[in-house]
Amino acid sequence: MTDPAYDYDLFVIGAGSGGVRASRIAAGYGARVAVAEEYRVGGTCVIRGCVPKKLLVYGSHFAEELQDAANYGWTVEKMTFDWPTLRDAVAKDVDRLNAAYTNTLNSNKVEHFLDRATITGPNSVRLASGREITAKHILVAVGAWPVMPEFEGSEHCITSNEVFHLESLPRRVVIAGAGYIALEFAGIFNALGSHVTVVNRSETILRSYDASLRDRLLQITMARGIEYKFNCGIERVEQHEEGCLMVHMKGQPDPLPADAVLVATGRRPKTDGLGLENAGIELGAHGEIVVDELGQTTCPSIFAVGDVTNRVQLTPVAIREGHAFADRVFGGKDTRVSYDCIPSAVFSQPPLASVGLTEAQAREKLGSNVKIFTSDFRPMKNIFGHRPERGLYKLVVDAQTDKVLGVHLIGPEAPEVLQAAAIAVKAGLTKADFDATVALHPSMAEELVLMR
Ligand code: NDP
C-alpha cells in the first residue's frame, strides 16, 4: 500500500471528529498518515460544540433541581451561581479531551502538525510554516464555521465560538436564529437566570423537527420566560456606555437592550482559502465540497468528510464517514454510510429527540396511509416539582405495513430514550413489536410501548 513516491499515504486536513477517526483507522491499516490542524485537536464537537455545550446544559439544570430539592426534604441554604466557575471547569474538560485526542493520534502513530494546510495540487499541500508535503491521498475534514450575517454593529455580536468564553453571565441575551444552537443556548441562559429573546426570520423554530414537538417546545419555553420575536431580523447593533448593546430589529419600533447578542443562523463549510481550486475541486452553492457517495471529490485523489460536505452536520455522521473512507481506501473493505434513520436531538430545555419521518413527511409520502399515536403525559418528576410541563411522544406508523417510520419525543431525558427507539426504527420494527414489549415501570420511556 505504501507508495515511496509520496511523503505520506494519507494527509488529513482538520483534526476534528471525522479527521481523527479517518487518521486512526487508516494508520491501523498500516498507512503512513499525517494530519494538520490549525487550532486544537478535537474539532468543533469537542472544543466549541457538543461537549462544552452539554456541560453547560448540565450546569444550568441545577437551577431546577435545586428548586425541587426542598420537595425531597433537602434544605439548600443559599443558592448562588458563579458563571466563571462553570466556564472554567468546562474549559478544563475541553483541555482534557484535547489531550486525549492528541494521545489517540500519537498512540496510532499519526504525525500531526499544529499548522494550517493549503492544498497546492492533487497530491500536495503546503503548511503555513512553508513546508511542502506530498501524499497519495488527501482527506479534507475541516468542518464548518458559524455564519455572521452582515449588519451594522455585527462586530459586537458573538457566535457559538465565543459563547463559551464570556467574561460574565449576561443579564439580557438576544439570540438570532431559532435552530439547534439558538434554542440550546436559549435554554442554558434562561435556566441560569438571564432574560432571553430569540429573534428569527420566520415563525418556525427547529424547521426539520415534527410540528407537534416544535409547538410544545415553544409553549414550554415561553412559559419559562423566553421571548420570541418572529418574522424579523437584526438590522443593527449599537454599543452604548458600559457595554450595553441596543439591538435594532426590522419592523420593530423599539430596540432591545442586551448584554450579549448571540448569532446562530447556521454554519457554513469552512472551505475559504483551502486552495481547493488548485486541485480542481468543485464546490456547491453553499460553499460545500461536492462529493460522491464514497466521499470522493471531483479530484480523484482527494476526499472529504463531515460538515465541510454539508450533508448532515452531525458529529456521529462525520465519524462514520471518516471511518468508512479509511476502510475503503486503506482497508480493502466496502464500508458505506447509511444516511437512513439518523437520530438527532436538541438539548433545549426540555430536550427533544427524533428519528425517521415526521408526521408531515410521512403524509407527504404515504397520503392517508399513516397512523399517528401520541402520548401526552406529565412526567413524574414534573408533578413532584409542581411544574405543569408535559412531555409528548409521537409514533408515526405506516398504516399498511404497521412499520414504525418515525419516533418523536419531547420531555426530560428525551435523547436518552430516543437512542434505543432509533434501533427499532432502523431495524424496521412494527407498532405490534412495540406493543408486544412489556413496559419498564415507572419510566418515561414506557410511554413508547403504551400508545394505543
Ligand atoms: P440551524 O440550521 O439549526 O438553524 C439556523 C437558524 O437560523 C434557523 O432558525 C434559520 O431560520 C435561521 N437562518 C438561517 N439563515 C439565516 C439568515 N441568512 N438570516 C437570518 N436567519 C437565518 O443552524 P445552527 O447554527 O443552529 O446549527 C448549525 C448546525 O449545527 C445544525 O444544523 C446542526 O446540524 C448542528 N448542530 C447540532 C446540534 C445537535 O445535534 N444537538 C447542536 C448544535 C448544532 P429558518 O429555519 O426560518 O430558515
From TrEMBL:
The lineage of its organism: Bacteria, Pseudomonadati, Pseudomonadota, Alphaproteobacteria, Sphingomonadales. Its EC number is 1.8.1.7. Residues 8-322 form the FAD/NAD(P)-binding domain. This is Glutathione-disulfide reductase. It comes from the Bacteria. One of its GO terms (molecular function) is glutathione-disulfide reductase (NADPH) activity. Its cofactor is FAD. Residues 342-451 form the Pyridine nucleotide-disulphide oxidoreductase dimerisation domain. It holds the Pfam family Pyr_redox_dim. The keyword Oxidoreductase applies. Belongs to the class-I pyridine nucleotide-disulfide oxidoreductase family. Gene3D superfamilies: 3.30.390.30, FAD/NAD(P)-binding domain. It is an enzyme of class 1 (oxidoreductase). NCBIfam families: PRK06116.1 (NF004776). Keywords: Disulfide bond, FAD, Flavoprotein, Oxidoreductase, Redox-active center. It comes from Novosphingobium pokkalii.
